[in-house]
Design brief:
The complex is a heterodimer of chains A (739) and B (1098). By secondary structure, chain A is mainly β. Chain A contains five helices and 61 strands. In chain A, the strands form 15 sheets. In chain A, strands 10, 11, 13, 16, 17 and 25 form a six-stranded antiparallel sheet that branches. The longest helix of chain A has 14 residues. In chain B, the strands form eleven sheets. Chain B has a 22-stranded antiparallel beta barrel. Classes of the chains: A mainly beta (739), B mainly beta (1098).
């Protein structure tokens, strides 16, 4: 026995020992395998190949590198040899390429070191025209001369023009290095000599060559690095701290040494845009800068008239030959728009132009279907609206109806993407929830939204059994139907169920396959919570909802859900039309009634009076006297000629009457033309006459049905022995409902 | 006539302890089978067990199989057990000691009475050679061992070193000490927040003099066990008995009672005044004899201190050497009087900063034998560990921090602006053990623990005020009020447990079923400026109520007084187990524990700014805790007594254990999403001697001209009226903001779970004296361990890889999905451990006991979750594939090898010696890494590839120069780890510090004093730690990696060549001559001693 237990335990221990792959094996993609993912190319150029084995079609993501050729850039499943080719390069290159197959991405790093021998070197510095350039954290800048009129100053810098590996600037920024005894003199384009005076670090300028400080030695010390040194041992440097060039004790921390670029041809284009020529602005607008290098006779710009309301330009900086404009773009309340800003200059008699295209996204207003339906037609106002496909006209042409809690609208020629195909038959189907961006229009009285499909999600048709078997997921939607069933108080899965059709919509939904507890139904897609009662769904109705599955404790719930439609359990008998002949609540006054006093004592001004709380009120008691009186509260004429069975209903209260006096002192009569018919109050509806409590009294008016001129009167009588108060409100004459 | 029989009478009785060791259990059991001489069960035999010190009587009768069991008994003893049956000689066993959480098995053979008429047999039981027999791994420490253990600091966790798997506080069996469990009488004493593995109450939540017995468990296969994955320590407190017994004691240690030189080098602060005196007493006895008992303990340790020795001046001239501040007494008196007259606020003294650092512990326990069937124990304990600190020197959240300290040469503060760090433990335990009949017993245990680490203040609630010197710089002159960072500041832990176990005994089975519930609440409250904060440019500005230059307030939304990052959960468990003795030799246990945690989502609110971030389709909801899940822990165990006499036992078991994680990894979620409190300030910046506020702040500040609101509620109301957007009273998910990172817990997260398997053999060697050996093996496999991933990092699988021998993936520039890192706490099943130990235990002659053990521990994990911040737990794991893809490595908590020898000698002249020798390797564990970030993941924790010389020849690795290469290889050959692992990636935390050997000593001498009829004892105690260091300052000093080696960063990547092979250089400090290990010059490394005087009566 002991052996058995020992072996059992030992086996357990061994079974748990190391299994499976090493971490390194796990760190690989399933569908893409490359022989190498770090590709190094020789500085002299050439090719390198890697082997790719992909399980599916593959392609490189687009990349922007003129130094590298990759072939092929896409292909199908299987093994492929991919070749990377580059020419010789002076500079280091590196690039991260992304190769995608299925949903996997393989990064491939390509690297090529620069060949120092290809970098320019001046073995012996020769006199000539040079731009003084600096590389400030990867950005090339060109020193500009001391401004006219100044005799000294630090040299500021403007962006250099970089074209491929060519550096250039304007001729105005060039300096002439001329060989003299002991070194070189430096003159700017207007011939001024640059010299150093005393211990200052700024450059002095003079039209004539000064006696001292104007001779510089020039020596190339690195690939892009020159020592330009004055006789007193100071170096030309660009101070990144002050953003200017001066002459400092060398080498300074943060001081950049100059790179002297032989002036080639000045830039061919006299008008060169230094920034992007296409600018996309967000809907809320804003501003951007655009820089123009202009060698011509000034710059003229123009903005199209239709764009002038939202697009404006100001000059924000002039830096040598480069003018920087700030372009301000207003918020876009309407649809997408764009405009070209045209810059012009004249150079040597020719006109040169450059264009900056500004495009701006339009506003998209989030809206409900109802709001779009109610909006006025305007193709410039875009809405984002979500609805479910309630019916389909022709999906291949993008035509269908969408609906949410607020309403329904026809979606017409909806494209799969902006400007794309309207064939949505492979994309969505009836019942799916779609988000459409489009504008409101109408055709022959039908409101439509025209636009494109921005987003959608599927709604699956399911039986309740299928729904119950699904995974819990808040974002997987099912359309389910069933009979609304009362499960109040039953406990299932640890939860006591409720039945509430008036507010939230909590009930069991039952079909032939099963039952599910529905918890809180919105009034429609994106509809309101707690308003389920407004939908008029009753127990026993066949209800269709869209729901996601959730398990609360152990109870399966349809939650969240929203209402689609319902079919009442069985058509209830249509309520017969009941005609209301008179409806006078006495809410604001005697209304349809007037008062006729048959007997009123001189001391009293009125017997029937109006009271906002108690309706019409009759009394002939003025403390301490009880008067004898008779007064009629009588309605206008009503036509009961069509009526067969008709009823008078009113609320009354009677108090302070002597015992049994009510019966004689409070009467209801119908005056039919000349004839007066007493509407006897049956014994069981007589009031005791000693309470302020209102009682609803219904009397049969059948005796006057069929007559065309009937006036209903409440007749109050009082005597010195019994002088009560009678209050009447909510008087209604209507057809008697059928049993 | 009674006949005493010494030693074991094999023919009469076979005694061994079968047991299931279980933690969180506070009692003991007795059980066994009674047979006659023919081996037939004796049915209906009466077993009466009497706990002699308290006269508590427990009774049972044997069943049809001749078996009996008694549960819920008081641990300890001695017990006197009488077995009687009509027609048989009565057998009485004396001197039986029950161990905590153990079942003592008493298997007796009764003789027929006719053989020796009228006699009964008294059998004195020698203490079992296997004091703790069990299925899994557990070590019991009784009171004698506790007292004898050398323990200079009277630390309660020092006791774990007598377990082969202990030795380093709560780090048990190579696990993170923060995941171990510590209970006293079943009540939690865990550091549940988990900033460190120190126990609450300042590390010693209960006096060691109040402890009766402790148990250190690693793999007990009882299903009542839970709440740890590494190991657990369970203690029970002392109880009163029928005899009044007490002790009074005083212990002292100071700076002269410790070494000041380690490895020949003087330790700078070793002789600074540091005097610790502990006074205390214990008293126990009967209230009603045999019925009701009490036990109390009180102890206080004091260290007198001055919070600061700076004092204001009379003349406005500072004297830094004499610690005189330029702030004048006159100005301080003026301010003191002004705030008292105007606001009734007492600033406290400006010239007296005396306060006592101290530690107070109190405990009271009642044991009530309600009747023979019900026994109740109730216990309360309180600990306050308090230390005082001057007001924070210069921090605020007021734009610029002060350029000088608030107390010092330039500025002074008042006494009521100091604060205390209070470690508080308050625990309560209610333990009812019932036996309804011979077959049915029950235990109900309920505990409540308040374990707080919080700040205290002598001040009334009042804003904190900084008064600057008016110089146009942020130079302080005076400060007063409730300390700026103290209001409600603290970590709080509330823990409630309740459980009920019912045991039914029938035939050869003992069926146990139970339910338990526990509640945990931990939070971290940190409200800087909680009482409000004002900063004035000058003293005149303050006194004239000019507009302040800063007003700040932190407040909870919706009126919450102490908002915090909080997590609360309820855990419910049900469990059942069967203990089956199919034969007298074999015991099997099988059980199942089911538990579930329900988190309270009230404490978190979703931050929509976070939720809306798309991590490749995944969204993180920081407004919900993990969902409720069921975790099952099935366990089986066995004990097989091979020879049937207890001399050779084979035991083991396997099962799952569900533990806990430092809950700070939960509270990081609300902390980082900041949806519970608003930290606000309106402030100015000083520039060129002038204040320079932003316009919006200026409006707020000007509104305080002539207004100094002392009530924080009024202050908030006023601020809210000034700017409801900046000072909102409530928050909704839409108002959340997002920073560069946040932390969250995976909704699927489960508490850590480990599958443990143990196999062991215990053998009593056939010597004339007790000599036992044990070999034990433990295998642990993670089922659900914790680790953290940054969802913002793309998977590395498709990243380009280097081409050399080191071909790790390189992170591309777009390796992140968004700008916000999302540290998500998740589960992994990876990780395992193997531990082997060998133990001996012997008593060669009376009075001498020797135990020794050797343990080898291997534990592999993905992460040890270092630190307490999600980012740190994520970052500090050296990796090859980036921090999202840690590889299995040796646990950072592992002590690789450990020996100990524990020798105790009690001679007849009242001398007690105890020597503890300990040697270990590891403990400081290092990793070899590149100095810089090779893979471009922006984490500077890249494990190196250890090149071989042939790699170099073949061009698979490249060094910048041949000097770099030769220095590296010279170093690598010398280093034990590198030389063995060339051609591999360096494994994290696998470089172990070298062996350390230490001896510590406890000596006690008893002077016996007779007072009337009672024998009292005056005991002189001396404890010395690291004794050998007294003789040679090199001895007993541990070593750590030479700091020149930059924590193991021994290779630098200079760049990657165009062929994809990195070029490395070797830092100048690394060469064949580099000393790898250096002595750790530290006060903890030298000898230290404590003397004590203890008076024991009765």
């Amino acid at each position: 026995m002991k052996t058995r237990y020992f072996l059992l335990s030992a086996a357990l221990v061994i079974a748990t020992l190391f299994t499976g792959c090493t971490t390194d094996e796990l760190m690989k993609l399933n569908g893409i395998e490359v022989s190498k993912s770090f590709v190094g190319l020789d500085m002299n150029g050439g090719s390198q190949s890697i082997e790719l084995n992909a399980n599916g079609a593959w392609a490189f993501e687009a990349f922007d590198a003129d130094w590298l050729t990759v072939s092929p850039t896409s292909g199908s499943a299987g093994k492929t040899t991919i070749t990377f080719t580059a020419g010789p390069s002076a500079n280091d290159h590196s690039l991260e390429l992304k190769l995608t197959s299925g949903n996997e991405t393989q990064y491939i790093s390509v690297f090529q070191p620069g060949d120092p021998s290809l970098k320019p070197k001046y073995d012996e510095f020769k006199e000539g025209d040079y731009w003084i350039m600096f590389n400030n954290e990867g950005k090339w800048i060109t020193a500009t001369p001391v401004p006219d009129g100044s005799t000294y100053g630090y040299l500021y810098a403007v962006d250099a023009i970089v074209s491929g590996s060519e550096l250039s600037s304007s001729a105005a920024n060039a300096f002439t290095f001329k060989k003299v005894d002991g070194g070189f003199t430096i003159q700017d384009a207007s011939g001024r000599y640059y010299y150093l005076s005393g211990t200052y670090t700024s450059c002095n300028v003079a039209a004539e060559m000064p006696a001292s400080g104007a001779v510089w030695t020039v020596e190339q010390t690195g690939d892009y690095e020159f020592y330009v040194t004055n006789a007193n041992g100071k170096w030309m440097q660009f101070s990144t701290g002050y953003s200017s060039m001066g002459v400092y004790d060398a080498p300074q921390a943060g001081g950049l040494l100059p790179y002297l670029v032989e002036m080639g041809e000045p830039p061919v284009e006299p008008l060169v845009l230094q920034t992007e020529d296409e600018v996309e602005m967000p809907q809320e607008g804003g501003s951007f800068e655009t820089g123009i290098l202009c060698l011509g006779d000034g710059i003229a710009f123009s903005v199209p008239a239709e764009a002038q309301s939202w697009l404006g330009l100001v000059v924000s900086k002039v830096d040598g030959d480069v003018t920087t404009y700030t372009v301000n773009v207003a918020e876009n309340p309407a649809s997408n728009r764009s405009a070209d800003i045209l810059f012009k200059t004249n150079y040597n008699g020719n006109e040169y132009t450059a264009t900056v295209t500004v495009s701006q996204l339009g506003a998209i207003t989030p809206a409900t279907v109802g709001e779009v339906d109610a909006a006025s037609d305007d193709p410039n106002v875009l809405y984002r609206v979500q609805g479910y496909v309630s019916s389909v006209n022709n999906l291949a042409k993008g035509r269908f109806n969408i609906k949410d809690f607020s309403g329904e609208i026809y979606a017409y020629n909806i494209a799969a993407e902006p400007g794309g195909s309207t064939d949505l038959s492979a994309i969505i189907s009836e019942g799916d929830v779609v988000t459409i961006v489009g504008y409101k229009t109408s055709y022959n009285g039908t409101n439509e939204i025209v636009g494109y499909l921005e987003d959608f999600y599927e709604v699956k048709e399911a039986t309740i059994a299928e729904f119950n078997a699904a995974e819990d997921a808040a974002d997987v939607w099912y359309r389910i139907s069933g009979v609304v069933t009362n499960g109040e108080g039953k406990t299932e899965g640890g939860v006591t169920k409720k039945f509430d059709l008036a507010t939230y919509g909590n009930f069991d939904l039952v079909d032939e396959t099963g039952s599910v507890y529905v918890y809180g139904v919105l009034t429609g897609l994106n509809g309101e919570k707690g308003k389920f009662g407004t939908l008029g769904v009753q127990e026993g109705d066949e209800l269709t909802i869209v729901a996601a599955k959730k398990t609360y404790k152990d109870l399966i719930e349809a939650d969240p859900t929203w209402y689609v439609s319902h079919v009442p359990a069985e058509e209830p008998e249509p309520e017969p039309e009941l005609t209301v002949y008179l409806d006078e609540p006495f809410a604001e006054g005697p209304g349809a009634f007037s008062v006729e006093n048959a007997l009123i004592p001189d001391e009293l001004e009125f017997i029937w009076s109006f009271d906002s709380k108690y309706g019409m009120k009759a009394s002939a008691f003025v403390n301490p006297t009880a008067y004898e009186s008779e007064s009629w509260l009588i309605s206008q004429s009503i036509d009961l000629s069509e009526a067969t069975a008709v009823t008078l209903t009113f609320d009354q209260a009677a108090n302070k009457f002597a015992e049994n006096a009510y019966k004689d002192q409070c009467k209801v009569v119908a005056v039919c033309g000349e004839e007066t018919v007493e509407i006897t109050i049956p014994e069981d509806k007589l009031l005791p006459g000693n309470s302020w409590n209102f009682v609803t009294t219904t009397l049969d008016l059948s005796s006057v049905a069929g007559k065309s001129d009937v006036r209903i009167a409440f007749v109050y009588k009082s005597s010195a022995e019994s002088c009560g108060t009678w209050e009447i409100k909510n008087v209604k004459v209507e057809d008697t409902p059928k049993e | 006539m009674k006949k005493a029989i010494k030693c074991l009478l094999a023919s009469l009785a076979a005694i061994f302890v079968t047991a299931s060791a279980f933690a969180q259990v506070t009692n003991s059991s007795l059980g066994g089978s009674i047979v006659d001489e023919n081996g037939e069960p004796v049915i209906g035999a009466a077993v009466i067990a009497t706990h002699e010190p308290s006269g508590t009587v427990y009774g049972a009768a044997t069943n049809a199989q001749g078996r009996f069991t008694i549960n819920g008994m008081r641990p300890g003893g001695p017990y006197n057990v009488e077995v009687s049956s009509l027609g048989y000689q009565t057998a009485t066993y004396t001197g039986i000691t029950l161990q905590l959480a153990e079942t003592y098995a008493l298997n007796a053979t009764l003789k027929e009475e006719s053989l020796t008429l009228g006699e009964s047999v008294v059998i004195a039981t020698a203490s079992s050679k296997f004091a703790t027999e069990k299925t899994g791994a557990a070590t019991n420490v009784n009171n004698d061992q506790l007292v004898a253990l050398p323990n200079v600091t009277r630390s309660i966790t020092a006791v774990t070193k007598v377990s082969p798997y202990g030795g380093s506080g709560m780090q048990i069996a190579g696990s993170d000490g923060r995941t171990s469990s510590f209970t006293v009488d079943g009540a939690s004493f865990n550091n549940n927040f988990g900033l460190s593995d120190a126990l609450p109450g300042g590390g010693n939540p209960i006096s060691i003099d109040a402890i009766e017995e402790m148990q250190i468990v690693v793999s007990p296969f009882d299903v009542r066990q839970t709440n740890f994955v590494g190991g657990a320590v369970n203690a029970i407190t002392k109880s009163g008995t029928n005899t009044f017994k007490g002790t009074a004691y005083i212990y002292h240690r100071n700076e002269n009672m410790r070494g000041n030189v380690a490895a020949g080098q003087e330790i700078a602060t070793a002789r600074d005044t540091d005097r610790n005196t502990t006074y205390g007493f214990t008293l126990g006895g009967p209230i009603v004899k045999n019925k009701l008992f009490f036990f109390v303990n009180f102890e206080k340790a004091t260290v007198p201190t001055q919070v600061t020795s700076w004092r204001p001046s009379t003349n406005g001239v500072a004297d830094p050497d004499a610690q005189i501040s330029r702030t004048t007494i006159a100005d301080m008196q003026k301010v003191q009087k002004y705030v008292m007259d105007k606001y009734g606020y007492d600033t406290g003294a400006y010239d007296d900063f005396g306060a006592t650092r101290g530690d107070t512990k109190a405990l009271a326990r009642l044991d009530w034998n309600i009747n023979s069937k019900h026994h109740l124990a109730v216990r309360y304990n309180y600990t306050l560990n308090q230390a005082w600190t001057p007001t924070n020197a210069s921090s605020s959240n007021a734009g610029q921090r002060a350029v000088q300290s608030r107390i010092g040469q330039y500025s002074m503060s008042f006494f009521n602006s100091v604060y205390s760090s209070d470690n508080v433990a308050n625990t309560f335990s209610f333990d009812l053990n019932s036996r309804f009949n011979n077959n049915l017993s029950n235990q109900f245990l309920a505990t409540y623990s308040i374990l707080d680490t919080r700040r205290g203040s002598p001040s009334q609630p009042f804003p904190f005020v900084d008064i600057l010197d008016g110089s146009g710089t942020v130079t302080p002159y005076m400060a007063l009020g409730y300390e700026l960072f103290t209001w409600h500041n603290g970590y709080h832990n509330r823990s409630i447990t309740a459980k009920d176990d019912i045991t039914y005994y029938f035939g050869y089975h003992k069926l146990m079923a139970g339910i338990s519930y526990d509640y945990q609440m931990v939070d971290n409250v940190y409200m800087r400026n909680g009482t409000g904060y004002y900063r004035y440019n000058s003293l005149d500005d303050f006194l004239n109520m000019a507009a302040p230059e800063t007003v700040a307030l932190t407040y909870g939304y919706d009126g919450t007084e102490a908002p915090g990052a909080r997590v609360r959960y309820h855990r419910a468990a049900i469990y059942a187990q069967d203990e089956w003795n199919p034969t007298a030799k074999l015991k099997l246990t099988a059980g199942l524990r089911l538990e579930t945690i329900i988190y309270d989502n009230q404490d978190v609110i979703r931050n929509n700014a976070i939720y809306n971030i798309d991590y490749n389709g995944y969204h993180v909801d920081t407004g919900t805790w993990p969902t409720t899940k069921l975790q099952a822990s099935p366990r089986i165990g066995f004990t097989y007594d091979v020879l049937g006499n207890g001399d050779l036992k084979f035991r083991g078991g396997t099962g799952l254990f569900t533990g806990r994680l430092p809950l700070v990894f939960f509270t990081n979620m609300p902390s980082n999403s900041s949806m519970y409190q608003n930290v606000t300030s309106a402030t100015t910046r000083y520039k060129d001697g002038a204040v320079n506020p932003s316009a919006s702040d200026l409006n707020i500040l000007n509104a305080f001209e002539g207004k100094f609101i002392t009530d924080k509620g009024e202050l908030l109301k006023y601020l809210n009226s000034l700017d409801p957007n900046k000072y909102p009273l409530t928050i909704t998910p839409d108002k959340g903001t997002v920073g560069s990172s946040f932390a969250a817990v995976d909704p699927k997260f489960k508490m850590p779970q480990v599958w443990k398997t143990t196999l062991a053999i215990d053998y009593n060697l056939p010597f004339s004296f007790p000599f036992s050996v044990t070999a034990e093996g433990i295998f642990n496999k993670n089922v659900n361990a914790a680790y953290i991933q940054d969802l913002n990092m793309k998977p590395v699988e498709g990243f380009a890889r280097l081409n050399g021998a080191d071909n790790r993936p390189i992170f591309p520039t777009d390796y992140m999905y968004t700008k916000t890192s999302a540290y998500l706490l998740q589960n992994t099943s990876r990780g395992y451990g193997i531990i082997g130990s060998f133990q001996i235990n012997t008593t060669p002659v009376e009075g001498v006991n020797l135990s020794a053990a050797y343990t080898h521990t291997v534990s592999k994990e993905l992460t040890g979750m270092p630190g307490s911040d999600a980012a740190s737990a994520f970052t500090y794991i050296p990796s090859i594939y980036g921090p999202n893809n840690p590889v299995l490595h040796n646990s950072e908590y592992v002590t690789l090898d450990r020996y100990y020898v524990n020798l105790t000698i009690n001679d007849k002249s009242n001398n007690h010696y105890s020597m503890f020798y300990e040697a270990w390797r590891g403990g400081y564990n290092y990793s070899y890494m590149y100095t810089n970030d090779l893979n471009g993941d922006n984490y500077n924790y890249d494990a190196i590839y250890i090149p071989t010389e042939s790699d170099l020849k073949e061009g698979k690795v490249r060094f910048a120069s041949s000097d770099d290469a030769s220095r590296f290889f010279a170093y690598a050959k010398k280093d034990a780890y590198l030389s063995k692992h060339m051609g591999e990636y360096a494994e994290a935390y696998s470089v172990y510090s070298p062996w350390v050997h230490r001896v510590s000593l406890h000596y006690a001498h008893d002077f016996v004093i007779r007072v009337g009829n009672t024998k009292n004892t005056l005991q002189l105690n001396l404890d010395v730690n690291n004794l050998l260091n007294l003789f040679n300052s090199n001895w007993g000093v541990s070593k750590y990696m030479n700091p020149d080696l930059n924590s193991g960063r021994i290779l630098k990547v200079e760049g990657v060549g165009n062929d994809g092979i990195p070029v490395m250089s070797t830092p100048a400090a690394v060469s064949g001559n580099t000393e790898i290990w250096k002595y750790n010059i530290n006060i903890g490394q030298v000898w230290s001693a404590q003397i004590g005087l203890k008076y024991l009566f009765n």
